[in-house]
Design goal:
The chain is an alpha+beta fold. The chain contains 2 helices and 4 strands; from the N terminus they run ββββαα. The protein has one domain.
Amino acid sequence: MEFCPKCGAIMIPKKKEDGKYLVCTKCGYTKKVKKAEGYKTKEDVSEDKKLRVSVFDITPTSAEVSEERQQLREEYYEVFLETMAEEESSE
């Protein structure tokens, strides 16, 4: 592993027509590799590995919506009853 002499960022191996180079990931500084041993480059990634998308449907079912609405109705009813009881006791 080598680091760029200009900015200190990591340099990665790149294969070009006339040989292998180390290229800075930050500033683009290049250095030709004299001895290619120990450096590996990999190219040609298949399309199915480049992009994978997962789709999740999190829409609640009608049963879940009905149950949630029923719970809200019960809570509103309890609040209504408490409010009515407070108003009656304050009169």
